[in-house]
UniProtKB/TrEMBL annotation:
UniProt GO molecular function: acyltransferase activity, transferring groups other than amino-acyl groups
Organismal lineage: Bacteria, Bacillati, Actinomycetota, Actinomycetes, Micromonosporales
Domain of life (superkingdom): Bacteria
Domain N-acetyltransferase per the UniProt entry, residue ranges: 13-155
Name of the protein this chain belongs to: Acetyltransferase
Organism: Actinorhabdospora filicis
Amino acid sequence: MLRHDLWTDADLVPVRRLTYEDRAACMDLAVSRDWGPEDPKWRFLFDVAEVYGIDGPSGELAGCCTLTRYGTTSAAIGMVLVAERFEGRGLGRRLMTHAMGLAGVAVVSLYATEIGRPLYEKLGFRTTDRNVTHVGVFDGPRPDGPATRPVTDADLPRVLAGDLIAFGADRSDLLTTLFGAAEHFVVAEDGSGYAAAWRNTSMLVIGPVVADDARTARALIADIAAKDGGKVRVDALHAKTDLRDWLTASGVTPYFETSFMVVGGAALPGDQRRLWAPVTQAV
């Protein structure tokens, strides 16, 4: 538990690795900041990421964040939350510096709301693109593109090998976990890409989407959306205008934007042209 005398210096506030038993407290904290409980996402995060937190004076969770490592070359920070009553005491900065220290030499990235962006800029993050979250019921025709089919166990090694080239860092643990948890996980029959989708509360999140070109990305997304028939969410960087314009025309319209930020504005590893949507902004 946090000692009261440490509140005078946020740099001395202890940060602990949270366990699955802390999941409910993380969801309560998220709800208090109008993020929603998102139980499926938190379950996934505790499976694939490291979750850290700060305990308040009475044992409550005062703040939390996640760190997802991809080998030693890339890492992502997400879900940076501080309880409203503890704002302005440097706890967000403490969580961030703790996670950044653990990331070591890896290139660290995150998605930032406008509220969090000033803090991240002070810590050396630079905006390299804007992310546009599209939400809606897909109502467009099936676009021209390769046929798709569900991933099999035999496909997984090829998917992981291709993802390593595209992403530039090893996220095999994350994708293997997703392979077992996703509602849909499909590949293009010609080997030009793959996509997965997982349900987060009221909608289906389509991601990641990795494809050689926009044509394949559109086909993968359309086939998943058609199977579900309900509201879907796709996150796409602003630079992916061909994908975003097609989503909008197909009923999956822009909902909100965040900043995609990287420490020092460094170039990310891999072939960013083949990355069309993340698993979730948290990772």
